[in-house]
Amino acid sequence: MFIRHRLHAQSKLTSGHAMGIEGFQECHDVHFLTFSCYRRKPNLLSATACSTFLVGLERVREQHQLCVYGYVVMPEHVHLLVT
């Protein structure tokens, strides 16, 4: 189930969200994100897979000027703390 949510916000996120969810972001808010591998398979078990994820995370961090406070990479999911 998806829940439509709104935080009091300065800017509406313009990237398309799945299932019509609208997202809003206050500048410099800290966000805790969790996401899983497809069907929760342990795709991040190898050092190569983790390295590939971290290279992608760094690219996204630079591109979107994110501050990554911390992350945990587990075999089937990832936790991120970002602004």
Structure, described:
The protein has one helix at 47-64; strands at 11-12, 24-25, 31-36, 68-73, 77-82. The chain is globular, with a radius of gyration of 14 Å. A three-stranded antiparallel beta sheet has the order 3-5-4, with no helix packed on it. A two-stranded antiparallel sheet has the order 1-2. The chain has a domain at 27-82. Mean pLDDT is 80; it is low at 1-14. Strand 4 and strand 5 form a beta hairpin. The protein is an alpha+beta fold and 83 residues long.
For the biggest sheet, the summary is: 3 strands, antiparallel
Return residue spans where pLDDT drops below 50 for at least 5 consecutive residues: 1-14
Summed over residues and divided by their number, the pLDDT gives a mean of: 80
Strand content: 25-35%
Helix content: 10-25%
Question: What is the CA-based Rg, rounded?
Answer: 14 Å
Sheet with most strands: strand arrangement = 3-5-4
Q: Which class do the helix and strand fractions yield?
A: alpha+beta
Number of strands: 5
Assembly state of the chains shown: single chain
Approximate shape: globular
Would you list the SSEs in sequence order as H and E?
EEEHEE
Termini separation: 26 Å
Count of runs of 4 or more consecutive helical residues: 1
SSE topology sketch:
Blueprint: E1 11-12, E2 24-25, E3 31-36, H1 47-64, E4 68-73, E5 77-82
Antiparallel strand pairs: 1-2, 3-5, 4-5
